[in-house]
């Protein structure tokens, strides 16, 4: 028997528990850090904090002893004499921390502010903040109350394979997309609300197709950040780098919220399989020999190497409870179809590169053009005639998460076109270089997998 892995009879209902670019430190930062470290040691209990001016040129160091001014100037900073030391302010903050449970919900934060030599309490209600400060027993002269409309809330990452919940089922995340994630269609209808594994409100199904297909996407709220990660369940993560479809025999791995003891791996057995569930047939699936259990529905199938997203866990036969995970059949909805639909909404798979074209990849070519293409389609650039032999160079620069290929074609005497050079690596960016004779040429861009905008560039002899 083959079953979808989140149908009501077997659904799990219990609740289990994008790289930002590094910024090189500026000289002013290094200088300020050195001054702060040295003067904190030199001034000891008199030290009251340090800060850098908005233009990064001036470092101010505060002290409770005016006699420290000479030492501060000698160290290269501007002195400021204040009433309370850094240690004194930290002690006041610790007092508030110990009484945190007595703070009303309108009190949003408190922190040490060296510039004003105070502990700042931010709040939507000044009266509530005053009650909190008074009840804590802290020195009220050390506290400055600031009115703020801020409502801080925790922020969470969206990671492939991890559990989420609807009103009926526990399912798993497949892959992050712009402002959401992919999952199985049988996990919920359009409009269904979701909660994360931590039971925090997460989003709603923005689209869902089942049976026939078995895909859906969830539009998440601002507390949730899509990432290019798939959980390996050993403290590390697979990194999603694209979505190039793999052939039969490829080693692939599955991640799901129920079988979260490890990443389960096997091979692609067949493509374009049909499964006849009780709810109806689902077509065009990837069949594997990897096990899965209820609640793994919607989870990620990714290549064992290369980080290529393949499919969304749909259903299967067998179980991982025997600890073997081999000999079973599990079926996956390919990611290409939902990604193509989302591309029409200006959304795409989140990959290690953040979903953006490679900056400057096609720089240096004499002719450049931009266009967009749908998965599986071909587009041809205007032909050109070269009157001399020499090197033809071309490139295509696509968005992360797609697989675009580039072909250089030459027109023969009968008027037909023949490919003379090509670049077909599994990724969005390609370059070709061809030493050819005089004649008429053109470039063909093929969207092998995925849709989106691209730049093409070329130079003729």
TrEMBL record:
SUPFAM superfamilies: Trypsin-like serine proteases. Residues 373-392 are annotated as: Disordered. GO terms for biological process: proteolysis. One of its GO terms (molecular function) is serine-type endopeptidase activity. Residues 84-139 form the Peptidase S1A alpha-lytic prodomain domain. It holds the Pfam family Pro_Al_protease. Keywords: Disulfide bond, Hydrolase, Protease, Serine protease, Signal, Zymogen. One of its GO terms (cellular component) is extracellular region. Residues 373-390 have a biased composition (Polar residues). Belongs to the peptidase S1 family. This is S1 family peptidase.
């Amino acid at each position: 028997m083959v079953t979808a892995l989140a149908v009501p009879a077997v659904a799990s209902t219990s609740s289990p528990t994008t790289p930002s670019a590094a910024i090189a430190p500026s000289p002013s930062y290094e200088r300020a850090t050195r001054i702060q470290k040295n003067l904190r040691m030199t001034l000891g209990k008199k030290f009251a904090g340090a800060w850098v001016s908005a233009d990064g040129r001036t470092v101010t160091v505060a002290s409770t002893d005016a006699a420290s001014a000479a030492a501060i100037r000698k160290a290269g900073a501007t002195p400021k004499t204040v009433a309370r030391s850094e240690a004194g302010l930290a002690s006041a903050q610790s007092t508030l921390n110990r009484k945190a449970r007595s703070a009303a919900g309108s009190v949003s934060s408190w922190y040490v502010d060296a510039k004003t030599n105070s502990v700042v309490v931010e709040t939507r209600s000044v009266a509530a903040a005053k009650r909190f400060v008074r009840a804590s027993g802290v020195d009220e002269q050390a506290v400055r109350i600031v009115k703020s409309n801020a409502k801080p809330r925790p922020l969470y990452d969206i990671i492939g394979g991890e559990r989420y919940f609807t009103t009926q089922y526990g399912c798993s995340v497949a892959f992050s997309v712009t402002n959401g994630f992919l999952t199985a269609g049988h996990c919920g209808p359009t409009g269904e609300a979701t909660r994360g594994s931590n039971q925090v409100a997460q989003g709603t199904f923005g689209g869902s197709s089942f049976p026939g297909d078995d895909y859906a996407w969830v539009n998440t709220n601002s507390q949730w950040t899509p990432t290019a990660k798939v959980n390996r369940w050993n403290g590390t993560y697979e990194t999603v780098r694209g979505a190039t479809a793999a052939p039969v025999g490829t080693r692939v791995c599955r991640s799901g919220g129920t079988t979260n003891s490890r990443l389960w791996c096997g091979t692609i057995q067949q493509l374009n399989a049909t499964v006849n569930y009780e709810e109806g047939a689902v077509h065009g699936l990837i069949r594997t020999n990897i096990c899965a259990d209820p609640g793994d529905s919607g989870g990620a199938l990714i290549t064992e190497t290369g980080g290529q997203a393949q499919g969304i866990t749909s259903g299967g036969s067998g179980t991982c409870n025997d600890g073997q995970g081999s000999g079973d059949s599990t079926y996956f909805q390919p990611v290409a179809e939902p990604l193509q639909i989302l591309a029409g909404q200006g959304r795409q798979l989140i990959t290690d590169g953040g979903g953006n074209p490679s900056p400057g990849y096609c720089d240096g070519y004499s002719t450049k053009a931009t266009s967009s293409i749908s998965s599986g389609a071909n587009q041809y650039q205007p032909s050109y005639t070269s009157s001399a032999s020499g090197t033809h160079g071309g490139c295509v620069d696509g968005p992360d998460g797609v697989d675009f290929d580039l072909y250089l074609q030459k027109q023969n005497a009968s008027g037909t076109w023949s490919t003379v050079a090509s670049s077909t690596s599994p990724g969005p960016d390609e370059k070709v270089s061809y030493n050819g004779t005089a004649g008429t040429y053109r470039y063909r861009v093929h969207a092998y997998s995925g849709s989106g905008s691209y730049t093409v560039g070329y130079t003729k002899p």
